[in-house]
Design goal:
There is one protein chain. The chain has helices spanning 3-13, 20-23, 43-62, 91-95, 97-101, 105-115, 145-149, 165-185, 214-225, 228-235, 237-240; strands at 31-38, 69-75, 81-88, 126-134, 154-161, 189-198, 204-211, 247-255. It is of the alpha+beta class. It has one domain: Alpha-Beta Plaits. The protein has an 8-stranded antiparallel beta barrel with strand order 1-3-2-8-5-7-6-4. It is globular and about 55 Å long. The termini are far apart.
């Protein structure tokens, strides 16, 4: 079977490959606003965290958005950085969020030190923004139980870049062909999975997992990689025919005190 036949088969079967567990989930697929705030050590960290806790997250709640995740980058390039994850069903609202917030007087008053920072004392260096659509087989964000308890937890944010749209479709199909189940079997808490609609380095997908600490992360990834069903899936000609992922970004985050995830 040649490459074009493989891609056609992937497109034709991806919708039919959903695991049974996914079928019982709410079919309303969310969208995600993912922001990276590149910061400098010092005042910017305090100003931005205060903006999240006192202004932004309360305003998101008033708009019916959330739970919102606010995270510190612990391991990865571009430290220091904060990440903000906002789930919602209204893509237009997420895309135009700042325009909507500008009409919220309560938000504007609380956000003033961040929102109106001067060029001589900026609140951040740059903001990178992505908009994502939840995977059909994982349509809604699933905070780990440790989020409600505010207990110790870290998050792994992974982005897979593919060399073509066809390879990207096949990688998404791979998740729907058993990968969700193999994460679950390894005891890994799955938070969200999303296709990037607008962002950099496309085509790509991003997903988030949660663990107690890095020791648990390593142990559970070993269990995942050693699962014979995963080995069989990853060796399948449908997915091993080409290098369907050519670059992986792997970040370790910890929640800020104001995070709802």
């Amino acid at each position: 079977m040649d490459r074009r036949q493989f891609l056609a088969a992937s497109l034709a079967t991806s919708a039919a490959a959903l695991p049974a567990a996914a079928q019982s989930q709410d079919r309303q697929r969310e969208h995600y606003l993912l922001r990276q705030y590149a910061l400098r050590s010092g005042a910017q960290l305090k100003v931005t965290e205060h903006y999240f806790s006192a202004a932004l997250i309360p305003a998101l709640q008033r708009l019916g958005l959330g739970p919102a995740g606010a995270f510190r980058l612990d391991i990865g390039p571009d430290t220091p950085s904060y990440y903000l994850l906002v789930p919602g069903s209204d893509l237009a609202l997420l895309a135009g969020l700042d325009l909507r917030l500008a009409h919220d007087a309560e938000f504007m008053a609380a956000a003033d030190p961040f929102w109106n920072a001067t060029s001589t004392a900026p609140a951040f260096e740059r903001i990178e923004i992505s908009l994502l659509a939840a995977f059909e087989g994982w349509p809604r964000i699933t905070p780990p139980p440790s989020s409600a308890a505010k207990s110790k937890r870290i998050f792994q944010l992974r982005t897979y870049e593919s060399p073509s749209s066809g390879d990207h479709v096949r990688k998404v199909e791979m998740f729907h062909s058993g990968e969700f189940d193999y994460f679950k079997a390894a005891g890994i808490s799955q938070v969200f999975f999303g296709d990037t609609l607008v962002g950099s380095h496309m085509p790509n997908l991003t997903y988030m997992l949660s663990f107690t600490d890095t020791a648990e992360l390593d142990a559970k990834w070993d269990a995942f990689r050693n699962n014979p069903d995963w080995k069989k899936l990853s060796a399948s000609p449908r997915f091993a025919f080409d290098a369907i992922v050519t670059n992986i970004s792997n970040l370790i985050l910890s929640p800020l005190d104001c995070s709802q995830i």
